[in-house]
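Workshop exercise sheet. Pairs work together: one partner reads the sequence aloud, the other fills in the structure field after running the prediction. Swap roles for the next sheet.
Pair: D.N. / O.F.
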Amino acid sequence: MISRRAVLTGLGGLVLASGAYATGAYRSAIAAADARLVRKSSLIETTAGAFEYAVAGSGPPAMMIHGTGGGFDQGLLFAHALREKGFRIVSPSRFGYLRSAFPLDASPWHQADILVELLDHLGIERLPIIGGSAGALTAAEFALRHPERCSHLVLLAPAANLTGKDPVEFSALQRTTLNAVLGSNLAFWALATLAPGRMIRTLLATDPALLSRVSPEEQRRASLILDGLLPISRKTDGLRTDGVWAGTPSLTAYQDITVPTLIMSCEDDLFRTAETARHLADRIPNATLRVWPEGGHIWLGHDTDVAREIADFARSH
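Structure field:
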């Protein structure tokens, strides 16, 4: 019969081995995040400080502005299918994300003005602007303030408070999850590893049950978006600022936007952007609205549809 001491010793060894495995897996995840980012972007000096961006693909340019928790890499991922349709993607990191500065004025309109400096640096006169999630706030301000530089405006799963009430409602458990992961790479990695479904629901506002109904490519895209939130510690300022601007009643004069506008969302987006999209379509003159029945906040199962809609829209106007 195995002695109690032998059993306890064996359990202790398993705990140590599990801890060593977890430490190694965490380090591997951080190394993968660093490898995804290093030497993939460029920096320019602007009137707001350092500003990060990346350019990928060939063809007519289009700018993809990332959402909450992103950076230039998320923008490139959001626009991957559009790039395959023959567009050159310009993807900035917004204020407080990755290597971009976090100025005292981190408003969407200040960000929009800095994007003009980026276009001047790249020698691009005019292009479509696509804003995903909280990036839609900056995209709309760019179209409003600089219509001569914006050929088309696309608002994709747009985050905005248009009714005086924050459309994002978190449960107590979700708020606990958010507070745990903000600023902590280890906490984020642990929760994403142990409870990926909860993280997809909480941070990506998408029902994880959808994963079983989409293609392997779309399942991988969801995984890449979630993994791409690392390193969360280099995005804390941007994350908290997005929460403020997306939750505060919007000051943007959407009714004054004059460029051709396409608005897209999914009915089951847990951040309720379908409702926001309809309000925007009512306010922006002659806007085109497209809402899919399901897909969540990351339009799961509709990435090729989104790219096709944007490409057709940009080429038909």
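Discussion prompt: The first strand starts at residue 42 and ends at 46. What would you look at next?
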